[in-house]
Amino acid sequence: MVKYRMRDFIPSKIDKYEIQKKLGSGHFSTVYLARDTTLDAIKAIKVIDVKDPESIMRKLDEAQLSYRCQHKHIVKINTAIPIRNIESLSKIILDMEYIEKGSIEDYMKDNFVSVIEAVKYMREVLFGLEFAHCNGVLHHDIKPGNIMLGRTGAKLADFGLATLIEKDTKEFEYGYYPHYAPERLLQKKVSIETDIYALGLTFFRILCNLKKSDWENFKKHKEYSNKIKDNV
């Protein structure tokens, strides 16, 4: 059962979790800081809306692929909990470890990341990404907002758009457009290199202190996209 505060429309409780605050949201989900009342533990929970049978499989894929990638430089998924209404499955909760410092994107709002720090973070994320790739998983959504700063170093987060490497994903439509690799723009089959390209752009943004608003207004990636299309 979900109870809502009329003041801010943030649920006060979802299943066994007491909601403390909203941490962020995307197209398909919302992340909250919550207390697990069973374990009396602070968690981050990702609440994913399920609208139709096809999306159920997609959301369960996220849970399964995330769980497959258990690594110290990947945000840990503890469990997935389906929430049902009277008629059908309505939500899926991903119970995750809580990263207190937040993302690099959050950190960059008020801080400058040195070259030494940036190299350290990218090295750690590469270890996590390599582990995901070795387990047959492509991330598809690497950006500063999906790199968390934990006590043990940087961690890759949010496998909501992840797919298996062997899956033909040349018509895959989702992702963060400003970080699209050339093969994504040309609707060709993606690969491990597609993730590496996105991580390279992430590294560039961190080194140049390009925040999300700066980057999304940065027209060079659109000009580059047009050049690629014109030369094909």
Radius of gyration equals: 18 Å
CATH superfamily of the largest domain: Transferase(Phosphotransferase) domain 1
What class do helices, strands and sheet pairing give? alpha+beta
Q: Which overall shape is indicated by the principal axes computed on the Cα atoms?
A: globular
Compute the number of strand runs: 11
Share of residues in helices: 25-40%
Strand content: 25-35%
Distance between the termini: 53 Å
Order of helices and strands: EEEEEHEEHHEEEEHHHH
Count of distinct structural domains? 2
- At the first level of CATH, the class of the largest domain is Mainly Alpha
Largest sheet: 7 strands, antiparallel
CATH architecture of the largest domain: Orthogonal Bundle
Strand order of the largest sheet: 1-2-3-4-5-7-6
The residue-averaged pLDDT reads 83
Looking at the structure, the CATH topology of the largest domain is: Transferase(Phosphotransferase), domain 1
Number of helices: 7
Task: Give the uncertain stretches in residue-range form.
Answer: none
